[in-house]
């Protein structure tokens, strides 16, 4: 099932080019950007009603709505650093996911497929794109073993991890508002045959920059669930960015970013120039 957010907090299911509004199955009285977390948590209970709604409800063209991030407000946004060997090599970095473990980002950095990416005005700094598969957590868990890990995966989405390069903390460099586009929808895990062989690509202005597969992950999907839950409780609606294959490069205002993930979908984002920021840690220009 392909589940979308749209029109400011409504929830829909997509089939082909059509959408069915299922918000009332989840949130009877008030649509909310957190309602989808409830849908994920209660999916097994709600699924019969959802299927009923899809059979009897009205479908309308997807182009009639404004898509938002499928999970606009995850409890926690986890992320894996340096999780593909070819990316480790291109960064000439001592970092590796199996040595560094995960980090967290501000969930408020998440934006949707209809939003623009807004670059802070940081003269001398470079902002890179990273092309990632997002895991959407479906079930609460702590100390989840890899053999049970898939029970905790609700589904997947496309995620672009925008990153200012510099010496500042990763959470600061990657948490600018609109720096984590997520979408265009999430696909439940039953529709993905093999999570260890999902191709992912990203283009900037129609030039291919990333062309990878989750078969090359250093810490694979099951390992990520095990690693994150060894430290933190994972909860329904949490989002985990799994890391980028090689191909990172700069984006500037006026660029168009297109991300595609096999069996999930694709989304196209435009990049705009934003305002200068007041932050003394970013006030010193760095050479890239
Ligand atoms: Mn990343």
Structure description:
The chain is of the alpha+beta class and 288 residues long. 18% of the residues lie in helices and 34% in strands. The chain contains 7 helices and 20 strands. The strands form 3 sheets. Strands 1, 2, 3, 4, 5, 6, 7, 8, 11, 12, 14 and 17 form a 12-stranded mixed sheet that branches. The protein has a 5-stranded mixed sheet with strand order 9-20-19-15-16, with no helix packed on it. The longest helix has 14 residues, at 43-56. It is globular, with a radius of gyration of 18 Å. The mean pLDDT is 94. The site of manganese (II) ion has 7 residues, from loops. Residues 79, 130, 132, 161, 241, 243-244 line the site of manganese (II) ion (MN).
CA gyration radius, whole angstroms: 18 Å
Biggest sheet character: 12 strands, mixed
Provide the β-strand percentage band.
25-35%
The tally of strands reads 20
Helix content: 10-25%
């Amino acid at each position: 099932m392909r589940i979308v957010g749209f029109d400011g907090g409504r929830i829909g299911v997509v089939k082909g080019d059509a959408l069915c509004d299922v918000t009332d199955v989840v949130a009877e009285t008030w649509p909310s950007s957190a309602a989808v977390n409830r849908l994920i948590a209660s999916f097994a209970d709600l699924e019969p009603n959802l299927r009923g709604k899809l059979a009897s409800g009205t479908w309308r063209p997807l182009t009639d709505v404004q898509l938002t991030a499928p999970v606009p407000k995850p409890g926690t946004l986890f992320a894996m650093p340096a999780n593909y060997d070819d990316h480790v090599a291109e960064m000439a970095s001592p970092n590796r996911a199996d040595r560094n473990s995960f980090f967290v980002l501000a969930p408020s950095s998440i934006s949707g497929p209809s939003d623009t990416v807004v670059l802070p005005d940081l003269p001398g700094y470079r902002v890179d794109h990273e092309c990632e598969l997002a895991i959407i957590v479906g079930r609460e868990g702590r100390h989840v073993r890899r053999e049970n890990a898939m029970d905790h995966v609700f589904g997947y989405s496309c995620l672009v991890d925008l990153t200012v390069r510099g010496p500042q903390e990763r959470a600061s460099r990657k948490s600018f508002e609109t720096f984590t586009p997520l979408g265009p929808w999430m696909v439940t895990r039953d529709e993905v045959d093999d999570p260890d062989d999902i191709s992912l690509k990203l283009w900037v202005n129609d030039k291919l920059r990333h062309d990878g597969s989750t078969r090359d992950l250093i810490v694979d999907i099951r390992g990520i669930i095990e690693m994150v839950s060894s430290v933190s409780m994972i909860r329904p609606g949490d989002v985990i960015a799994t890391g980028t294959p090689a191909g990172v490069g700069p984006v500037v205002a006026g660029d168009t970013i297109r991300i595609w993930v096999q069996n999930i979908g694709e989304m196209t984002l435009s990049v705009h120039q934003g305002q200068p920021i007041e932050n003394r840690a970013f006030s010193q220009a760095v050479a890239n």
